[in-house]
Design goal:
Catalytic activity: UDP-N-acetyl-alpha-D-muramoyl-L-alanine + D-glutamate + ATP = UDP-N-acetyl-alpha-D-muramoyl-L-alanyl-D-glutamate + ADP + phosphate + H(+)
CATH topology of the largest domain: UDP-N-acetylmuramoyl-L-alanine:D-glutamate ligase
Pfam families: Mur_ligase_C (PF02875), Mur_ligase_M (PF08245), MurD_N (PF21377)
CATH architecture of the largest domain: 3-Layer(aba) Sandwich
Helix content: 25-40%
Number of domains: 3
Shape: globular
InterPro entries: Mur-like_cat_sf, Mur_ligase_C, Mur_ligase_C_dom_sf, Mur_ligase_cen, MurD
Number of helices: 17
Structural class: alpha/beta
Pathway: Cell wall biogenesis; peptidoglycan biosynthesis
Organism: Polaribacter pacificus
Number of strands: 20
Amino acid sequence: MERLVILGGGESGVGTALLGKQKGYDVFVSDQSAIKTKYKAVLVENEIAFEENGHSEEKIMSANLVMKSPGIPDSAPLVQALLTKGISVISEIEFAARYTKASIVGVTGSNGKTTTTLLCHHILKAANLSVGAAGNIGDSFAQQVAENKYDVYVLELSSFQLDGIVKFAPHIAIITNISPDHLDRYDYDYKKYIASKFRITENQTEEDYLIYDADDIAIKEWLENNKTKAKRVPFSLEQKLENGAFLNGDTIEIHLNTEEFKMSTTNLTLKGKHNIKNAMASAMAAQLLKVRKQTIKESMSSFEGAEHRLETVQKVREVLYINDSKATNVNATFYALECMDNPTVWIVGGVDKGNDYTDLLPLVREKVKAIVCLGVDNQKIISTFNNVVDVIVETAGAEEAVKVAAKIASKGDSVLLSPACASFDLFDNYEDRGRQFKKAVRTLL
């Protein structure tokens, strides 16, 4: 019996454990920290061996195959020891894909992954396809495969998950955009991060499709210098394309496999130029999966968007509060500020991942009346914007940030939480940050 060792007892780890046991592996789960009660209960119920609060090296080194959670870097000494011994270390995505014949739409990119994944899933569901969403969102992909749930999966894929693939090949790959992010995991080498994203297409064949942003410099340069076997399907806001999706005035036009599709952007529930691109990518994926044009149009105008991504919380005393906690890098915040029509009090800050805020200066100059810092170390933000914005206030929690923003904001203004940073200095994760922000807004009433 082959031994499958799983590093990390979270969503992907426990899902993989269930699928591994079903496929006849001797499964062992090991977590450096405490395993959450709900995941522990699943392991106990399914009689899967596990350990927490530390790794037993001898138990791990006896593995034939190791699945590591995306949060563990390749540089971790334990991972390096496994690789040196010649033991294969893969991601949940690689493991689960080996056991499903489902058609896979894989979505990656620095920003827009979640929105595009959810929108794509929304359209396919409306078309009555048997479709699941997984990867970075929802229930674990491996668990869904174990339960033999769906004919199609839309997977949100981070670069960390793609780093752990060997043969994984989605039928349709989508790269929404690429901008510097997580460079701390890639030796601060942007090229390594770009290469990681493009792993999504490395195993695709001539029967598969790569949907990508033709306006994105990093994507364009990679495609000029590297090959993919997949059929290339671009989308653009800047150029008219013979094959692909583009913007003609206020109309999205798609030319794909001799078919034509047109839809007014005024019918999109999602606002902002970046969401027009997300809509183009989702619509083309749906068309390639033979979804009717009418279904695509109807789905686009009924989609509600992702939580913590430009999410309207509510109006309080004629000030609109917007939760964009999922904006954990500068590019995501750029999109958010671009969407602001009213004078904006901008709540920003957290764990800086090597951010360069200079790209934001023109938008901040034009739209931001005050900055509320929400982080332990705000020096970089203050020094970048103190000549552009008159009011900059430092705060140490969501509740304080919201109270300060409410005092500064006037009737008709917006208060935007778009941190451009990771959340780990003051919060568990970006969801925790977003929920605390929303709770604080509701206490203003």
